[in-house]
Every structure is written in C-alpha cells, then in structure tokens.
Amino acid sequence: MILGGKGRAPAGPGGPVVLFDGVCNLCDAAVRFVIERDRSGRFRFAALQSEAGVRLLRERGLSAGEGEPESLLLVEGSDVFSRSEAVLRIARRLDGAWPLLAVLFLVPRFIRDDAYRLVARRRYRWFGRTAACRVPDPGLRARFLQ
Q: What was the pLDDT predicted at 71?
C-alpha cells in the first residue's frame, strides 16, 4: 500500500529507508535480519521515533502516530509502503532466496495485510519492548539516519 507520494526516485544517496518501531523487540530483530541479508548496503534505517523518521514521514505528509500500529514502513523516494507491501518489497531486494517471497504478491493484499496487522497489534505482548531505541554499533552507524 502506498501511503503517499508518486515518484520512484531513490530515497537518497544510500537508497530506500526502512522505518521501524525503535522500542519493539520484533522490529529490532527484523532490522538485524535485513542488515545481515543486505550485504551491498542498499537499505538505510531509522526508528519511527527518531528525528530522521519523523522528518521523513512529515516530508511526505504523514506522521507515525496516525491510524493502526505500524511496526515497519519502507520509504522509496516520495512513496511510503506499509504492511505486507513493505515487507515483500524489502524481501525482494535481499541476498539469497528471500526474493522468492515476492510470489506472495499473488495473495490478495487484504489477506496479507490482515496477517501483518495480527502480528503488529500483538508485537509488544508477544516479543516485548525496550525502554529506548537501539543504538547501532559503530560499523553500522552510517546506515542509520540521525
């Protein structure tokens, strides 16, 4: 689902940006998962709660507090993708067999997004949360927006 914007321009010098819930343990694990499978460093990252995350959404006429709980968004140029669309677009660019998950685009969006919402609404209960956003180690700091 595209939340805003029209263009397909890259997110900037470092490519598309994955916005994630910085206090969610599941989201933190998802970010680590993507980093380990994105050896070429296509993706950059920002917590939804960070200044960079808030700025990226505001520039696209959005805010992190609106509507349903989002755990992960993908910003590509002026477009913001959410829910299963974001997850599958990210998987499509990972190393290994992960791009094969793109076959799930054949599943109707409402089914994919219902599954996403089920997990998103319960992520704190099932996986816990931290008191503060993750601080990336020095080797990864350049991939995290400030």
A: 81
Q: How many CB atoms lie within 10 A of CB 127?
A: 15
Phi, psi of 24 (to 5 degrees): -95, 125
Question: How many residues does this entry show for the chain?
Answer: 146
CA 98 – CA 59 distance, rounded (Å): 31
Q: How far apart are alpha carbons 102 and 89 in whole angstroms?
A: 8
E strand or H helix that includes residue 126: helix 109-127
Q: Using the 8-state DSSP alphabet, how is residue 107 labeled?
A: S
pTM for this model (two decimals): 0.83
Phi-psi region of 35 (alpha: psi -120 to 50; beta: other; left: phi over 0): alpha
Instruction: Please list, in sequence order, all residues whose beta carbon lies within 8 angstroms of the beta carbon of residue 129, skipping any fewer than 6 positions away.
Output: 23, 24, 25
What 8-state DSSP symbol labels residue 143? G
